[in-house]
Design brief:
14 helices, alpha/beta, D-Maltodextrin-Binding Protein, domain 2, five-stranded mixed beta sheet, about 15% strand
């Protein structure tokens, strides 16, 4: 074959009429028909290699992206590090004590610390907002209580909606309150007190542990349902309120039961009623408010909540452990020391309580035109 003929038979992926010109000395690939046939006969293998390599690179990229993300929370291994329990009120009170008791149980049974952090202020709103804005991974919890339900209507502008932005985990306890009066008040029954207050509108001073607290709201509910006119005198906690009740500066206090029973038994204060639907074992002779005011019920309650979108498996795991805690005889004795009656149930049960209480106290706030301190 002539040089020209050989040149005419070369081609690159198609037929050419002449040889392919060199490009500034660059090396070019010339394929003979034999080379092309051999290439196309291996095309299936080459295609398979190409797709396998592409799939491998895609998978490797996805794994690298997953590795860059924080590990997903799993109920199987939760918790793997310390968990924070936010208490929106000061150390030493019912919220703090309940958080520490249950936190210790969870630490003992789940193998990681549960650390209580007291973030006080704005009636518990500062601590609540911190939890609402935390990562929904189970490592930040809230010890929820009555003010969380009250604040939804007591405060005009909040940066969160408590019912919408939390995941209920479990109820822990209910704590009754006692209607206490100074011995100088001329009433030995609740009915006599109502008559006395109506005869002296605006002259009876009602102390509370602070605006929006459970004792305050119990008193406001009583005012709304009976029509009595009492002057609210808020204090920074129940201790100062009790001190002024002892001194006669105020006449009545709806008080959380823990720490008050001895004052009643020694005659320093007079108990007219308890606010819960049933009587207290420690004060069996003291009737309920509902015995005189039909339909009345108020109590302090404590439970656990987490940020919205916390995995359901983690919520269920915590719920199971908290229910186990409050069913334990030793834990029940510790909770009874702060007046607590166990409040077992599923997350949905605690969620219903929160929703019902939010609606209930919203009506009281609006009826009384209540404002925060």
């Amino acid at each position: 074959m002539t040089k020209a003929g050989a040149a005419a038979s070369t081609f690159d992926m198609g037929r050419r009429d002449g040889p392919m010109p060199p490009q500034q000395g660059a090396r070019r690939l010339y394929l003979t028909r034999a080379n092309w046939d051999r290439l196309t006969s291996n095309r299936g293998t080459l295609d398979m290699d190409f797709w396998l390599r592409r799939d491998f690179l895609t998978l490797a990229g996805a794994l690298a992206a997953m590795a860059a993300l924080p590990p997903a929370a799993s109920a199987l291994d939760y918790p793997t590090r310390p968990t924070k329990i936010v208490a929106g009120f000061s150390a030493g009170g019912g919220v703090d004590i309940t958080a520490r008791l249950i936190g210790q149980w969870l630490a003992d049974h789940l193998g990681q610390p549960f650390v209580v952090e007291n973030r006080t202020g704005a009636g518990g709103n500062i601590g609540t907002e911190a939890v609402v804005n935390a990562a929904p991974d189970g490592y930040t919890l809230l010890l929820a209580t009555v003010p969380n339900a009250v604040n939804a209507s007591l405060y005009e502008k909040l940066n969160f909606n408590f019912v919408r932005d939390i995941a209920p985990v479990a109820g822990v306890i209910r704590v009754p309150m006692v209607v206490l009066v100074h011995p100088s008040v001329p009433a030995r029954t609740l009915a006599e007190f109502i008559a006395y207050a109506k005869a002296n509108p605006g002259k009876v001073n009602m102390a509370s542990a602070g605006s929006g607290s459970a004792p305050h709201m119990a008193g406001e509910l009583f005012k709304m349902m009976t029509g009595v006119d009492m002057v609210h005198v808020p204090y920074r906690g129940q201790g100062p309120a009790l001190s002024d009740l002892f001194g006669g500066q105020v006449q009545i206090l709806f008080a959380a039961a823990p720490g008050t029973v001895d004052y009643v038994k020694t005659g320093k204060l007079r108990a007219l009623a308890v606010t819960t639907a049933t009587r207290m074992p420690d004060l069996p002779d003291v009737p309920t408010v509902a015995d005189t005011v039909a339909g009345y019920e108020a109590s302090q309650w404590y439970g656990f909540a987490a940020p919205k979108n916390t995995p359901a498996e983690i919520v269920e795991k915590l719920n199971k452990e908290i229910n186990a805690a409050i069913a334990d005889a030793g834990m029940q004795a510790k909770l009874a020391a702060i007046g607590g009656d166990p409040m077992p149930g599923a997350p949905a049960d605690f969620g219903k309580l929160i929703a019902d209480e939010t609606e209930k106290w919203g009506k009281v706030v609006r009826a009384g035109g209540l404002k925060p301190d």
